[in-house]
Every structure is written in C-alpha cells, then in structure tokens.
C-alpha cells in the first residue's frame, strides 16, 4: 500500500536531516556521570579519556628466552655457539634487582621487564635452554625482540575522544591504564508513543478490526540497542488523549517519537497536537517514499519526531532522521551518529519506477546489496514489516528513476551501530 501524500510542498531528505541535526546541536549537552569501567561498554565518553601512563610501562620481552647485550652475541651460530653465564631469572611481574652485566645473560619469560643494560632478547629455541650457563646459537641485533615502553600507548595520548562510543577494546586499554571508573554521558530517555484506536498491547486478546502494536516495540528496541533508555506507551486516536500522553512523556523524557496520525486522514491528529502544545516545527513532510508525512519539532529544548503509522515508513525515517539527531543530542561524535554512505552493486532489481526519492530496505555485505522479496514491489510496501528482518541498510533510489536492474551500482545508507 502506498502512503497518502500530503498536499503541500515537502523539504528534501538532505534539508530534513540538516534541520534536525542543527536543532539537536542546540540542545543542552547531556549531563556527565561517573560509572564503573565494567559498566561502560556502549556508553559515550563525556570528555577526552587520556592515557595515565606509558603502555607497556617498561621495556619488556615478547617471548621466552634470554635478555642479552647484543654485542655479546656477535658470531654466534650452532656451529660456533657463544656461552654466557646466566646471572638472573625474570618472570612477568618481577622487577629486576640489578642491571645486567656485560658478558652475562638473564633468563627471561614473556612479559617480563628487561634489566637495565640489556638491549635485545634471543628466543630460547635458538639456545640450549641452559639455567646456569646458556649456549647461544644465533647473533642478535640491538633492540631485536624488545617491546618498548610506551610502544602501544604513550602517556597523555587520547584513548577515547569525547563523544566516542566505548567498545570492549576501549575498555581493555583503559583497564590496562588502571582506570576503574570513567565519566560518560548520561543516556537520554526517549518516549515512544504509538497512536491508533486499532492498536492492542501484545498479550491482549485479539479482537476483529484490531492489530497489535508492532511499531512501538520495534522503535523502542532499536533505540535501546543504541543505548537509549525508553518509556513506551500507546493511546487511542483522540486528540485530547494524545496531547495528554505527549505532555506526560515530554515531562519525563528527553525526546519523544510517535507513530501514526501524521497523514491526511480524518483522525490524523498529530499536526494539531503539535500546534496545541506550541511546538516549533522543523520538518513538515519529506519528499520521499516511504515516510513522506514525517513531522519533526522541538518543544522546551526537546526533540519530537512524529512518524508514519506504516511500519516500514516508521522504521526508515527513524533510521534516516530521528536516530542521527538523537545520537547527536546524546553526545556522539559526527562520524558515529550519521548513517555511513557507500556504493554497492545490486544483486537483484526493483521493478517499479520512482517518481520521487525512494528508499528500499536491503542487506549489504562485501560490496553487494540485496533487496528482500526478490526485489518485487509488494515486498517493499510501507505496511510490510517482516521484510525488515535481517536488513542493515537502505538503498537510495533517486527521483525520476525507472526500474532498477540487477548489477546497478546504488547508493546505500548503512544503519548506525
């Protein structure tokens, strides 16, 4: 089923995105909070997190063998081994008690610090593995087989710039720096409001003419996946009820996303509700399919997005506009709040011409992108929900395009992670 197009001029997708991002940039910055490092995966760094110390904090051995003065290994081979006394043994965690004298060797294990004076390590496989004395079967160059202090991370280096989403790798590096806590942005809470007298809460008995609320669950799950807290509600097509629910959510949440009630039907009340609330409109429709009736506004320093009730239309505009704006407001850096754009080769075609900008759900992998449902137009109707499963991107079809053939290179918007 095609969406009803409102009888008024729309802004372009580029203009719509710019409007909501600019509005997000003007909102108050999220407040910082300090949390245990173990709880910080997926959270956003509130400020630059820097290295407290060199990593590794000392020159160390990357292997089991012998720490040596390289000059003492000159000419060593299996035919003519060099024999040296072993004057110390070092394990990971040990601190050398003395410098290594010239003409001597130190038995050393992986991760142990080099004693002062040693400038190389010979792996034990190239020795006789002696304990009191050792025979060396190869010469070693200065600085060979040494992991140097600060080689991985130098003291003062920025590990995670402000706005970085902290990954398991970040947490590993920070743990290696001795961080037990980090300061991150407080997660924003987003209100999800599904409108429609036809809606039932999953678990309720089904009744003729009714449908279960899929949009609310899908939108809420997607936002939780990105680190937002969610307050989810639904209500009937009654402007007073909708207004009351919106006021309630705008009181306790940082932003609100609605679905349903934005087109030109007799019970499409969201434009009236926004006007009644005194919200400042940013976007009044976007020149695209699906999702053309989308509204975006600000109210008392909070973002409001009113999306179509058609499931894919709601999902597409959530990805294109609401998520980037919310992630910017949440404190993410630009490179991680915008959908990545790339060019892929279409493995199957799309049979329908596109008078306006069109976005198709798809799955991209290895430079190729595949449309669900063998590319037939029915699988891409705004009301089809199951075709979203497994999709990770939108294929952008420019306005005034004919049917798209397999093998065509197309622009792809990858969902933000």
Automatic annotation (TrEMBL):
<protein>
    <recommendedName>
        <fullName>Molybdopterin molybdenumtransferase</fullName>
        <ecNumber>2.10.1.1</ecNumber>
    </recommendedName>
</protein>
<comment type="function">
    <text>Catalyzes the insertion of molybdate into adenylated molybdopterin with the concomitant release of AMP.</text>
</comment>
<dbReference type="InterPro" id="IPR005111">
    <property type="entry name" value="MoeA_C_domain_IV"/>
</dbReference>
<keyword id="KW-0500">Molybdenum</keyword>
<dbReference type="InterPro" id="IPR036425">
    <property type="entry name" value="MoaB/Mog-like_dom_sf"/>
</dbReference>
<keyword id="KW-0808">Transferase</keyword>
<dbReference type="InterPro" id="IPR036688">
    <property type="entry name" value="MoeA_C_domain_IV_sf"/>
</dbReference>
<dbReference type="InterPro" id="IPR036135">
    <property type="entry name" value="MoeA_linker/N_sf"/>
</dbReference>
<keyword id="KW-0501">Molybdenum cofactor biosynthesis</keyword>
<dbReference type="Pfam" id="PF00994">
    <property type="entry name" value="MoCF_biosynth"/>
</dbReference>
<keyword id="KW-0479">Metal-binding</keyword>
<comment type="similarity">
    <text>Belongs to the MoeA family.</text>
</comment>
<dbReference type="InterPro" id="IPR038987">
    <property type="entry name" value="MoeA-like"/>
</dbReference>
<dbReference type="Pfam" id="PF03454">
    <property type="entry name" value="MoeA_C"/>
</dbReference>
<dbReference type="InterPro" id="IPR005110">
    <property type="entry name" value="MoeA_linker/N"/>
</dbReference>
<comment type="pathway">
    <text>Cofactor biosynthesis; molybdopterin biosynthesis.</text>
</comment>
<keyword id="KW-0460">Magnesium</keyword>
<dbReference type="InterPro" id="IPR001453">
    <property type="entry name" value="MoaB/Mog_dom"/>
</dbReference>
<feature type="domain" description="MoaB/Mog">
    <location>
        <begin position="191"/>
        <end position="328"/>
    </location>
</feature>
<dbReference type="Pfam" id="PF03453">
    <property type="entry name" value="MoeA_N"/>
</dbReference>
